[in-house]
Structures are given as C-alpha cells and as structure tokens.
Amino acid sequence: MIYRYFTFLCFLLTFSLYAQIDKEGLDKLDVEALLVKELTTGEMIYSKEALKEVKPASLTKIMTAILAIEQGDLNRSVIITPEMISVEPTKAGYKAGEMILLEDLVKAAMIQSDNDAAMAIAVAVGGSVDTFVERMNEKARQIGMNNTRFTNPCGYDIGDHHSTPVDLLALAEYAIQNPLFNDMTRQNRHLYYSLNTNRKFVAKTHNRLLGRYEYAVGVKTGYTSKAGPCFIARAKKEGNDCLIVMLNSKANRWSVARQIFEQVFVQPATALSEEA
User: Fold this and answer.
1) What is the average per-residue pLDDT within 226-247?
2) Does residue 113 have an active-site annotation?
3) So where are the chain's domains?
4) Among 58, 163, 194, 249, which one carries the catalytic annotation?
5) Is 58 a catalytic residue?
C-alpha cells in the first residue's frame, strides 16, 4: 500500500513542463480513469484514478501479443482446435483444422482484437490456456504491474481479471520498446490466408485514429460491458511521444485522445471540451 501511494506521489511531482494542458477540462471528462504521459521527457502530464482497480478488456491483448512476440518463433504454423474457436465475438472466424501463421494470429489479436486469435496464441505459445495465463501474470510481476491479475488472454471479465491504469501504462511502455510490436500496432488493416485452405482473412482496426490522425502510431482499444470503452493511444510528433491510457470513457475516445495529443504537441494548446 505504501509503495502504491509513493508511486502516485512521484507522478504528482512531475506535473511541471506541461502546465498549459487544460486539466480543468480533463477533470470534467466523463471517464473513469485517465493518464497522459510524455515519453520523451518521462513526465506524467495528467493523472486521474491512476491506482483504481479497473477491468482492462482487450487491452489485455497487449500482454498476449508481447509474450507471443518475445517467444521468437512467429513463422510457425498453428493448427486451429475447437478450444481456440469456442469464444465470443470479436473473432476472425477460423475453422478447426485450419493452419494459421502465428504472426498472423498476433496481428489479428492486436489489430482487430480477435478473441479466437488470442486463444490460439495462448494454446500455441503456452501449451494450454492456463499455462499461458500463468506466464502473463509472471511477466506482469516482472515489469512492475503489481496490482494486476490476468485470468484469460482475451480480456473477458472472468473471475478476478483486473488491472489499474498505472499498471496498464507500464504494460504499454514495456511493449512499445519492441519494434515488431510497434509495427503491428500502427497497422489499420492486415490481409492474410490460412496456410492449408487458402481462405482469406482481413483484420481491420477498431482504432479510429489510425489513418485519420497523422501522428497516431497505436496502441490498442478495448471494450466489455463492465470495462466500458477503453483505449491506450500513442502519437508522435517532432520529438514528442505521448501515451494516453483511458478507461471506461463515456466521452468519444477518438476525439478526446486527439485533443489531448494536440494540447501536448501544439502551443498554445486548444482547450478540451467535455463533449466528444
């Protein structure tokens, strides 16, 4: 407990260089939690409910993807099993017996947030879903996600599946150190084929900043009925590199994120509006 609040205090002490950010406007936004960090300087520009326990929804798939990438064999094929496809939408629609390249599964999980792809990754990389989830939690501890517990690779609200905004920020900061991860998260579309049936799949992003806001470079969207609309967004412009963690947003995620980025990147900053 002491460590958590010491960390939060450190965040508060870093709010200096970006005093022009409209914090009053941010305070009025209808979001459960919101963090804004400038990665070049390491400054936490804004923080709301950084330590609150939240449902991470498909932001979970950042962990699923980075574990698959780090295991290093993305060129191997994965045979789809009934267990992998017994999931709720969103899903790619694989059929049992189809062979999909592991790299394509990772892209499908990250770009379109396909749950059958995430389950296939878990079984292929971990040997079983349970073993993979153990690896997720072990990695979480390694990178300082001290108040996170994963129960599944997709982000379902199953059991005690939870995180905090500051933990999700740590996960995103860790993942974006990987060039391949970054390449995947900036894609708004991925075309691929089953290796043995040649069936075509197209993964399309839910991130409405990609391709519409020129500085956007990722990262991941999420939604469940309990988590609400979630978004970890990243944009880079002229030496600035900004990361946003937004949980359970009733405001328009895309508009809010874009306005925040412009306040960080452009002087004088444009005032944020509560309306999306």
Assistant:
1) 96
2) yes
3) 2-265
4) 58
5) yes
Find the catalytic residue in 23, 91, 113, 249: 113
Q: CATH assignment of 2-265? A: 3.40.710.10
Which candidate in 37, 48, 55, 61 is catalytic?
61
pLDDT digits (tens, 9 = 90+) for 170-194: 999 999 999 999 999 999 999 999 9
249 is catalytic: no
Q: How many CB atoms lie within 10 A of CB 252?
A: 14
Mean pLDDT over the full length of the chain: 91
Q: Which two tokens stand for residue 228?
A: 């609400």
Beta bridge partners of 218: 234
Q: Would you state the structure tokens that stand for residue 166, as one six-digit string?
A: 């500051």
200 pLDDT more than 70? yes
